[in-house]
Each structure stands twice: as structure tokens, then as C-alpha cells.
Amino acid sequence: MNKVFGIVPIVMKVLLGLVFIASAILKIVDLDQFEIYVYSYHFFSLNTSFLVARAAIIIELVLGIGLVSNTLHKLYWWGSMAMLVGYTLLLLYALHMGRTDNCHCFGDFLQFDPKQSLVKNGVLMLLFLPLYWMGEWKTPFRWLILCVSVVVSTVAVFLVSPPDNYTNAYTAEQNLQLELFDEMLDDAPLDSLNLREGKQIVCFFSTGCEFCQLSAHKLSLMQQYYGFPADQVTYVFMGTEGGIDKFYEKSESAQYRNVLYRDVVRMLTAIDGEFPTIVFLNNGVVTQVYGLRNMKEEEIKAFMAS
């Protein structure tokens, strides 16, 4: 009987470690969404949010591996509790802000709103508390396990999904056919939108494109945070009327002026088939073109502020 009771804490600790590892892996699978979730709080810049998102995943992996190995028990126990408390404080802030969106603690695989995630964290902390007094395996390799887990986790995360600001993302302006795009501004349906007047952001999206939805969410967060006029943003869609409604729902973007472009061949030719393509105009002159991977927050902020 004593052996059974001795095994229970170890099994519980391993299971909690596996929860952390699963949480980290599921975040990696949907890392684009998790990056935007971190950025949505505007505690950090877009580029810093890329790194903070990966740091959170690395910490979860390291803590999970440490719990499963049952070494350096007090270090991993305090680290795990600190992480859970930190996430809990963030969720309380989210509730204070009135947010009800997925907290991405398990990526998009299991969706929890802040209230549900608070309950989950509360259960995990209650399970952790009695484990404080359990023993550990005094392996001579315990510090080596920690060092290897840190290095392997960091390398794996950055290799699987390098941050956009550290990759050679395609340059969208190389793919925009400027002459054809200029002609499109003077033809229906874009001719009635006064896109040659002042500063304008014209986004070419396909309603079913996941990367377009991510770009729309990212741009929408910038527009709302920095307060540049919403009427200067136009979404030009390839798709259907019903698809536009689904696009807004999935992208969690603010509602902007939008048109459905019927001449699909012409649109695809103008943007060289690259979705998304986001064009910045100043009195009808193209100043910058972005895709999902090369959007630069500081450039966009400066463009709208100047």
C-alpha cells in the first residue's frame, strides 16, 4: 500500500509535465495565431511578440521535461507555479478588458475562453500544491538534463517556426504589377472609392485564405491600437458574398470598407497570385507593399502618422 501511495505523486507529476509539453506543442502548431494573441495585448511590439510567444513555449517545454524527469524538484515546482500564476494574472486582465476569445493555452486544438482557462489553471495549481513535499531522483545528470532541455527546446522552436523578422520573407512589392494595379484604381469597382486621395491601405484577400485572415487580424490590431482612420482601409476580396462574412468572423478583424472583385484573372495578374497583398498608397502612389511575413509595425505606424 505504501508503494502505491509513493507512486501516485510521481505519476501525477509526470502527467502534469505531459500537460505542459502538450500545451507547448499545440501552441507551436498554431504559432501564427499565438503570436497575434500575444501582440493583441499590446504589451510588446510586433517583433518582440514573436520572441515572447516562443519564449513562453520554450519555458513550457523545459518545465514539462523537468517534471517528467523528476529532477531538481523544487526548481521545477516553483517554476511551474510561477508560470501558472503569471498566466492566471494575464487571464484576469483579459476578463477585466472584457475579452472572451480563445486564450490559446492549447492552441486552436482545445479552445478555452478566459473563464474556462482560469478554472483549468486553478485545478492545475491545486494538483501542484501537495507535490511540493515529494522527493526527487538524485541523478548525477540532473543539471545536464536541464541544460540539454533548454538548448534542444530553443533550437527546435526556432527551427520549426523562425520569427518573421528573422526570415527572408518574400518581398511583396516585387510581385505587384504596378501598371495594371494603377489601371484597376480607375476602373469599377475601385474607381468609386477615391483611393487616389490621401493615405490609403488596399488589401487584396481571398475569403478562404488562412494567411489573409491572419494578416487582416494583425493589421486590424495595428489600426485600432495606433488609431489611424478606419475609412482609409479597404479590403478587396476574391470569393463570394457569404465568404466575406465568414472571413470577418474567422479573422476577428474590424469591419472595414470592402468590395468583391469579380474579375478574378485581372486581380490575380496584378498581385502575381500572391495572397495576401497589402498596398499602401499616398495620393495614388504606391509607397509600400506587404505580405503576411514582412509586415513592419514601425513602418506602418510611421506611414499613417506622417
- Which structural class do you get from the secondary structure elements? alpha/beta
Beta-strand proportion: 5-15%
Oligomeric status: single chain
Give start-end ranges of low-pLDDT stretches: 1-5
Major sheet: order of its strands?
4-3-2-5-6
Tally of separate domains? 2
Compute the gyration radius: what is it? 24 Å
Spell the H/E element sequence: HHHHEHHHEHEHEHEEH
Number of β-strand runs:
6
Let me know the largest β-sheet. 5 strands, mixed
What's the rounded overall pLDDT mean? 90
Molecular shape: elongated
Span between termini: 74 Å
The portion of residues assigned to helices is 55-70%
Total number of helices: 11
TL;DR of this structure?
The protein is α/β, with parallel strands linked by helices and 306 residues long.
Could you explain the architecture of this structure?
The protein has 2 domains: about 1-165, no CATH class; about 170-305, Glutaredoxin (3-Layer(aba) Sandwich), CATH 3.40.30. It has 11 helices and 6 strands. It has helices spanning about 1-30, 30-40, 45-70, 75-95, 115-130, 140-160, 180-185, 210-225, 240-250, 265-270, 295-305; strands spanning about 105-110, 200-205, 235-240, 255-260, 275-280, 285-290. It has a 5-stranded mixed sheet, covered by helices on one side. Strand 3, helix 9 (about 240-250) and strand 4 (about 255-260) form a beta-alpha-beta unit. Helix 1 (about 1-30) packs antiparallel against helix 3, helix 3 crosses helix 4 (about 75-95) and helix 3 runs antiparallel to helix 6. The longest helix has 28 residues, at about 1-30. Mean pLDDT is about 90; it is low at about 1-5.
